[in-house]
Amino acid sequence: MEAQALIRIAEALERISPPPVSAPDFTRADAFVWHVSPDRLEPVARVNRVDISLLVGIDRARDTLLDNTRRFARGLPANNVLLWGARGMGKSSLVKAAHAEARAEGDLVLIEIQREDLPSIGRLLNLLRGQDKRFLLFCDDLSFDHDDSHYKSLKAVLDGGIEGRPENVVFYATSNRRHLMPREMIDNERASAINPGEAVEEKVSLSDRFGLWLGFHPCDQDAYLAMIRGYVDALGINIDDDTLRAEAIEWQQTRGSRSGRVAWQYVTDLAGRRGVALRD
User: Residue 84 is part of a domain; what is its CATH number?
Assistant: First the structure.
């Protein structure tokens, strides 16, 4: 009787459990977003990105990331990459632009995963393992707060566990923090721990698992103006240098900062005033 009851329970659980997710048709798009509940990869019809030539003032990071991405697209060894630093300086824009450029080197698919979905990353890797394409996993604005254990799931793609990271997968992340957690959190745990070194080693060392660190720093005024001039020329907006300079500096002063994001916000306002439609 007990054996029959267990069989009925097992059969009931099998009926209500979701079927295993199958890989989508990766020829439908060159970019996908990973969702959970249920697990699925949704194709992105049009990726929101800018041409890599318009990303001014980040030449070293641009060249390093582009070289790494192109090598990976060609089937050669490549590193996981952490792009960290100042807000609005083009970290996520550079990842998307590098993907667009590297697609000429091989069949490279961009997959975005949200930070809160990192616990499901093992299931995603199993889905991608053995596929005949190359996959660039991308997590934007990655960071961890106190008592956040999501970072443990990330080790599956950075270290790979027993199976190892799939050869056809590389992971890029952007963050405002170099060590992916607040500095005061590191200091508090170090101060209160019996063994201060071991207390934070696991969390801080997560950054060390990225083969490449690319730093982004606030831009100076010349770089800020060069960004704007590049956007303006690409969009075909007719404005003289003196007027552009005066308006752009005033815009930056009202925002209290200079960055690529602030530059684009000014250009968006300028385009609207001049009746020029924004385009890729």
Answer: 3.40.50.300
